[in-house]
Specification:
The structure is a homohexamer of 312-residue chains. Chain A is of the alpha+beta class. Chain A folds into 2 domains: 97 residues, Nucleic acid-binding proteins (OB fold (Dihydrolipoamide Acetyltransferase, E2P)), CATH 2.40.50; 177 residues, no CATH class. Helices cover 40% and strands 17% of the residues of chain A. Chain A is built from 11 helices and 5 strands. The first copy, chain A, has a 5-stranded mixed beta barrel. In chain A, β4 and β5 form a beta hairpin. Chain A is elongated, with a radius of gyration of 22 Å. The relative contact order of chain A is 0.10. Chains A and F meet through α5, α10 and α11 of A and α5, α10 and α11 of F. Chains A, B, C, D, E, F: GO terms for molecular function: exonuclease activity; nucleic acid binding. Chains A, B, C, D, E, F: This is 3'-5' exoribonuclease YhaM. Chains A, B, C, D, E, F: Keywords: Exonuclease, Hydrolase, Nuclease. Chains A, B, C, D, E, F: It holds the Pfam family tRNA_anti-codon.
Chain lengths: 312, 312, 312, 312, 312, 312
Amino acid sequence: MKKGIKSLQVGHKFKGFMLIKEATKGVTSNGKPFLTLILRDMSGEIEAKLWDAKPGDETIYTAEQIVYVTGDITQFRGKAQLRIYSIRPAQVTDGVQISDFIEKAPVEKEVLYEKIMEAIFEMENPNIQRIIRAFVKEYQDELLTYPAAVSNHHAYMSGLAHHIVNMLHLARELCKLYPDVNRDLLYAGIILHDLAKVKELSGFVTTSYTLEGKLIGHIPMMVEEIGLMAKQLKIEGEEIIVLQHLVLSHHGKLEWGSPRPPLIREAELLHLIDLIDARMNTLNRALEYVEPGEFTEKLFALDNRSFYKPNI
Amino acid sequence: MKKGIKSLQVGHKFKGFMLIKEATKGVTSNGKPFLTLILRDMSGEIEAKLWDAKPGDETIYTAEQIVYVTGDITQFRGKAQLRIYSIRPAQVTDGVQISDFIEKAPVEKEVLYEKIMEAIFEMENPNIQRIIRAFVKEYQDELLTYPAAVSNHHAYMSGLAHHIVNMLHLARELCKLYPDVNRDLLYAGIILHDLAKVKELSGFVTTSYTLEGKLIGHIPMMVEEIGLMAKQLKIEGEEIIVLQHLVLSHHGKLEWGSPRPPLIREAELLHLIDLIDARMNTLNRALEYVEPGEFTEKLFALDNRSFYKPNI
Amino acid sequence: MKKGIKSLQVGHKFKGFMLIKEATKGVTSNGKPFLTLILRDMSGEIEAKLWDAKPGDETIYTAEQIVYVTGDITQFRGKAQLRIYSIRPAQVTDGVQISDFIEKAPVEKEVLYEKIMEAIFEMENPNIQRIIRAFVKEYQDELLTYPAAVSNHHAYMSGLAHHIVNMLHLARELCKLYPDVNRDLLYAGIILHDLAKVKELSGFVTTSYTLEGKLIGHIPMMVEEIGLMAKQLKIEGEEIIVLQHLVLSHHGKLEWGSPRPPLIREAELLHLIDLIDARMNTLNRALEYVEPGEFTEKLFALDNRSFYKPNI
Amino acid sequence: MKKGIKSLQVGHKFKGFMLIKEATKGVTSNGKPFLTLILRDMSGEIEAKLWDAKPGDETIYTAEQIVYVTGDITQFRGKAQLRIYSIRPAQVTDGVQISDFIEKAPVEKEVLYEKIMEAIFEMENPNIQRIIRAFVKEYQDELLTYPAAVSNHHAYMSGLAHHIVNMLHLARELCKLYPDVNRDLLYAGIILHDLAKVKELSGFVTTSYTLEGKLIGHIPMMVEEIGLMAKQLKIEGEEIIVLQHLVLSHHGKLEWGSPRPPLIREAELLHLIDLIDARMNTLNRALEYVEPGEFTEKLFALDNRSFYKPNI
Amino acid sequence: MKKGIKSLQVGHKFKGFMLIKEATKGVTSNGKPFLTLILRDMSGEIEAKLWDAKPGDETIYTAEQIVYVTGDITQFRGKAQLRIYSIRPAQVTDGVQISDFIEKAPVEKEVLYEKIMEAIFEMENPNIQRIIRAFVKEYQDELLTYPAAVSNHHAYMSGLAHHIVNMLHLARELCKLYPDVNRDLLYAGIILHDLAKVKELSGFVTTSYTLEGKLIGHIPMMVEEIGLMAKQLKIEGEEIIVLQHLVLSHHGKLEWGSPRPPLIREAELLHLIDLIDARMNTLNRALEYVEPGEFTEKLFALDNRSFYKPNI
Amino acid sequence: MKKGIKSLQVGHKFKGFMLIKEATKGVTSNGKPFLTLILRDMSGEIEAKLWDAKPGDETIYTAEQIVYVTGDITQFRGKAQLRIYSIRPAQVTDGVQISDFIEKAPVEKEVLYEKIMEAIFEMENPNIQRIIRAFVKEYQDELLTYPAAVSNHHAYMSGLAHHIVNMLHLARELCKLYPDVNRDLLYAGIILHDLAKVKELSGFVTTSYTLEGKLIGHIPMMVEEIGLMAKQLKIEGEEIIVLQHLVLSHHGKLEWGSPRPPLIREAELLHLIDLIDARMNTLNRALEYVEPGEFTEKLFALDNRSFYKPNI
């Protein structure tokens, strides 16, 4: 079972460095000020209470500050909480940095990049290949660092590229099993499907939605990007419509945000591969913190189911 | 009550010119060939049977051919059918033309154009005004001739512009009643919301869906068009996102094809005005063929309800 | 942006008169009694805590009492709360009265009455006119003071009449645009549709549902009222059934409480006008407390959507 | 297995008297006129074709005419059809009458009446008893002859009273099992719940919906009737609201036409007893025409399920 | 109105014996340890706070310990809470035992057993009779002591048998009213339908779900048991399939956990009888704690409805 | 594009051997008998009309008879129909046999068997391995010949084994990508999940549902089989519950017939692999009969979508 703040039980003591994600000031029923901090390490987050806040503390303990904390784990309304005994900002001499507290994909981004380039290299249709290559070039930095979501699946640094590379792995195998599938379309759909997340999300440190993300969403944004790129590269024809359809339909149903359901074989397959990798990522991450014979917490992205880890 | 093929009852004789919309060849149980024609006039369509088809008839009686027909109205499985006694292709000397058989908006397209230009003229935000003006210029011909749908509401020549102008009329009044509403946004949303129907549909004679219409749909197509136009006119900023959102959300719900629900006041209002004009158009057209005290046929676009025409 | 309790931020001080809407006694974990008050002004409500309650305070600070309060705004579980420093009941010399704390329609009730009478005057069908006139006479006081709901849209004094008058304004315009619409029916439907709210709700000060409201609801209650009134005025015929149908179907769908969906053109239009005015009222009121560039809180009556106020 | 037209198989000959329910004129593909008749006996209906219709036949063979027919059973699109060889109108000397062809409840209406009076006699609350007695008196004839539905459950002469009496039987037993149940309310709810069907439906011969039935429906109609009756008998108080609620909520859910769900114990029980008797009546009637080891046709009123008749 | 912890109001004092159902340790914002106990008596449960917990208290006050408590009823977030003044474990001399705190069926288990045997005795099909007799013998102890659910209906000792016996009572009456119903099947379905709850649930003291209960559920478990028992008794034939179907379909719909809906008359009836007895049990228990003129709390098992207790 | 009856167009002549799947007798409007035959070859089925049926023909042309037919393809209500000119039963000398007309998996059953054994061989948990081996042995013949469905996916001879082997191929690859997945559980789930189809379906020639299939269904049937097999092999413990859960939950949702949703990682993956292989099989088979640039017919098993075959 993995270690970290997420694995601590009520009654445990804690001492170590944490990153502040959010900080809010409050006042107790006795009129004393206190701070509520959301602290995180690689394993997850915890709500923490600094009951004896001193004047000025709220200007020191703010988002993205690293702190050294001692305290113990209590429980409030059924959730673990950290009661802080002592706290101080990290100093240069502590040798800690923000990236120590941000979860990353288990594969290096250089490897992820190579695997994506490999898939592009295998493509046979020159129009599709040119478009995909141009997109990967244009968004290379973001593609290799952004998460695939704010929470839920692949919500970690390089999560977007990690998700793409996993899907390409599955796609390669499915093309062997179902040889009629058009590999170029499937690969292209996989690389593009979530690419506009680099515009829908704010970044990889404290990820949130941009205004465009909230009002338009990554699916129509990417359809537009494909249209613009095709104009720019002077590519015309059915390939463009089909690529747009692949992105447009990858959520599978209207009520899940795709204004058209998959109407092409490769679009259906893209949707299903996306489903598998997203769900397995969510599940694997949840099961890491659970002992055999126990159930996970309720997983929102999996219809609020609690999953059992068998003793087998 | 309106006249035309739609108003004829079982047992009536018919004689006159009609436009062939579709033609299919069949073989009777006695092995004799026959033709099934879908004939239309301004009031609607009827299935017709030419039981004694001669060799070669199927090459004469094809879609978009005008014919002179005599026959009588029978009933098949609860629907009116025309049994053809005689048929011949129309000749130049008959003085009939395709446009005589195609329903048109009750307002001339020049008037519709003027009303749209009037609304643009009232706009105060220069960016929004420029974009809308550019779109109306680019698609002027199609905007003034296309229907707003294949069937359902405003499914007639210039139906798209007629729908827009009705909605502008309502919008003007709503802006008086709710003065906080941003008139520029509402007008712009109305003019753009269905504009990509000129790419989603094939034209105004025998209207069908294009491939792009089927695989992408007019909503994401228009979002893309707005992005391209903004690039072309070098306009940037929140106006573009907001215009795209207005178009994107105008179907009101994810399951109705809007990947985002309305999240801006004017988007909500646009959706509701669209609903009113679409439903009233469908209802008014159906009630024209019904006597007081009777119910219409089931209206698919209104959840299959039959509407009653009161004796009041 | 509007002023009032609803616009105060965490950390702000407050001092002024407020109306107590609800009062509950509690005991802290130290065994000390405290009072939880729901206080309101014209802008809305806030939960307030009087931590140092003295014996007898619970008999002084009760619902519908005006109080002078000082305190500051804290936050509890994400919602603003008022921590009370001092409190005292208002006195005659303070010159404040309950109506100062109750939101009212932005139009005087005399004006609202006149507009309703104007619509009745325009009616041509004598039966319909007589019935509507009789209803307005019978319920004149309540009609002009009741809100249209407990919370949600037009939940303020004279909200019911304000809602009716807005709808009549829209109806007048729609009858111009769609001349086949029967104006008498539409006007009559608008005036009657929510009239039984004067029996479903308890009044306009601290509005709640009556037993009849909870067990029967304003729709079937109004259908019954129309039947009784027709009997009393000795009016018979289709008008009665049609008026009852207009009221019965105005929620639009069975799952929204209409046992029949609209089956008459004017019933469909009534439902849509009601939708527009209810939603615009809710939206406008929510956006008043939000700065451009921000989102409103989640609006329950609009499917829990948060709306964005553009910088345009 | 029961006998009658419903039990005949393809290939069988038929000869006997039938009642015409509907008659429509048609024209064959050879231009010859024919008649489509819906014929019925006690067991059900069959579509019949009179291919060689003579001029004038359509004025002889009309709805509610009894005819003597010979023919054989064919199949058209999966449904049995009667091909008529000979047909003639019944004559006085034939000794047949309409009531011979209309299904009736298996219990005499005098017995049904007595059982209803017995239940009223058992009531203890004088207000409830007076109201119910008054209703039974006012609608005695219709109550004892009307069916409970156009098709579906208890769709036969005296079906309404038969349904009520069955429900009273169950109610008596349930009051023993759950002694806290208020028997007066439950009995009253049972007698009134469907009573307005005598206004919703046209009668018991060729039953259809009235205009009021279509636009208002029996539930709000009965709520109104209770209000009127209470006024007439000068009864006031909670009994009236509760009786109205019982009728209003007896369909159990908003989407099934009850604007309020059951909110009183007896209302919940009324809904469930209604469900049991309606479903058992539908099921029993369908299973009568099926041999052990077979499945019934799909039953619309039971979610289109086909039921199996076991060999046990 | 019934007495017990569930009937106490805010402000009341309490003193008496209670059973601890759950105990959790917490730490206040001042760093002091406290205990949260869920205490129960026959009427229900209450959350209790022991604010001044001494070291070691958490090892004394654990689940299934009886305690003598004094305290008063406060309110936290809208729910009653018991603030403990003093607490001590019960001693032998107190003369209390766990069964004093556990709700039991209102009928003795010997009587329940007799009624079940009576129904078995009435059966005529020897195969069905043998199977049912064998099951009752095998699970006699659990059948007579287990509850029918963790919460919701019949959630008390011998609740399962009580539920069965009530259903048998109704079934006997329904067989009289609908004589075509196969009584053996209906009785057998009633006795078996929830029997696997003795494996799905952990017992009758602090009832929870077993692993098998969570992963498989009582319906498929019972289908399997019937198959095994048939093998053991060497019974073959349609009876087995039909009994399995009765159990399988008794939840009525796929979304309620029945992989097949009822497809046999007796299965439909079994589902409806189950519904009636479950709902009436829930309702009766909720109404016991409510005065006439009041509404119950929201009942989860009845779609979150609050029921009204009339003044009649 | 594939050849066969399914690929013929209206107007085409046909001559060749076909297998009769169903035969029904009819009578024309002129009173002449005719036969409706459902004929099939490897590519699919067609409705055929033998208009001039001679006496006795209905005893010759019955289900599972091979016939030599000439005729031409007509169209009836939008579907292709074969009008028969001549027909005769096949004779021994024709050298045709039933298996020539029944579609088979594209892989030999010996190869399928080997692949399944290979997967069993890789298992490490001895209990799971023993159970799976025992099942494959017990149902070897049926497992290798049965289809996986009546219509829809893998509805051909050896379709069940083909489906299993495809899923095992995918599973092997997924275990590489997600190394925490328990391969034994996943393989076992795949082999067992649809195995009870050999009892749910009647065979592979003219496949229909058995009574047990209709009343119980393959999911609960297989759960029972696992319980029996475990008893027989004297295997106890969590493996059995987990195997039963894998089978029970493989339809993914209650409304799709799984009384529990997947609650174990391998169950979720099993459901998704099943979905992929089922949908791809349906899609691939439909696209074989469609030219690039065209849409398939509506596919019931894919939510009635028509899929497009791109020109790429």
